[in-house]
Design a protein that fits this description.
This protein has helices spanning 12-16, 24-33, 35-44, 46-50, 56-65, 77-90, 106-116, 149-169, 177-194, and strands spanning 5-11, 92-94, 143-147, 199-205. It is α+β, with helices and mostly antiparallel strands. Helix 5 crosses helix 6, helix 7 (106-116) packs across helix 9 (177-194) and helix 8 (149-169) crosses helix 9 (177-194). The longest helix has 21 residues, at 149-169. It starts with a strand and ends with a strand.
Length: 206
């Protein structure tokens, strides 16, 4: 079974602040402009909704209002996907062709490639964990992680230091071509973020 990684460029702090913001205007814009998307998701998760899971809009409303959230932990995934929808609507989608689809431990393999270049401030595998903003309930799926502006700045400094060392020695770490391509895509995400103060990357794995 393959997985998908979706990554977005956005103001990380402002995006997290949408949770519990009680922004009714944003809710109305999403319902009026993206009603078809909400309906498609409801159709996809119809079985879970029949068993008591919130609809896509109900989950989105709970996220923006900061609750209440259903007590059934099996339904918490809807709040994770609602937060992903907020990121997709307020951020810019970043090229993910090196990661979608992917299988097995590919994210950790790319992390090993980053580490071989002494880039340790960020981790692609972090996107597969559940780091949703509070008070959203824990959910295994979708995974969510973020690269803050500070971590991105540190990671880019680490890469530049390694690049200088490689230029001086003429010896680069031996990496498979597909790993190099994925690492360069990660660096591209970070460079986009570094160009905009306060911006970082939020990723979702499902």
């Amino acid at each position: 079974m393959s997985s998908s990684l979706s990554v977005y460029l956005l103001d990380v702090a402002a995006t997290r602040a949408l949770v519990g913001s009680r922004n009714d205007q944003l809710l109305e814009v999403i319902r009026n402009s993206f009603g078809d998307d909400l309906a498609r998701d409801d159709d996809y998760f119809s079985h879970a909704i029949e068993e008591g899971a919130p609809t896509a809009y109900e989950a989105l409303r709970a996220v923006i209002n900061g609750g209440p959230f259903g007590e059934n932990k099996d339904h918490a995934f809807q709040y994770g996907y609602a937060y992903k929808r907020l990121c997709s609507l307020t951020g810019s989608f970043l090229d993910n062709n090196c990661f979608t689809p992917h299988r097995g431990d590919w994210l950790s393999v790319v992390d090993e490639g980053l580490n071989a270049l002494d880039v340790t401030a960020v981790s692609v595998e972090d996107f597969s964990y559940s780091d949703l903003p509070g008070p959203l309930p824990y959910t295994y799926m979708p995974g969510c992680g973020e690269w803050t502006p500070d971590h991105i700045a540190q990671a880019l400094e680490q890469f530049e230091a390694t690049k200088r060392a490689v230029d001086e020695s003429g010896q680069a770490p031996p990496l498979e071509p597909e790993v190099v391509e994925a690492v360069m895509q990660c660096l591209g995400w970070m460079r986009h973020a570094a160009e905009r103060p306060g911006f970082g990357v939020i990723g979702f794995c499902s």
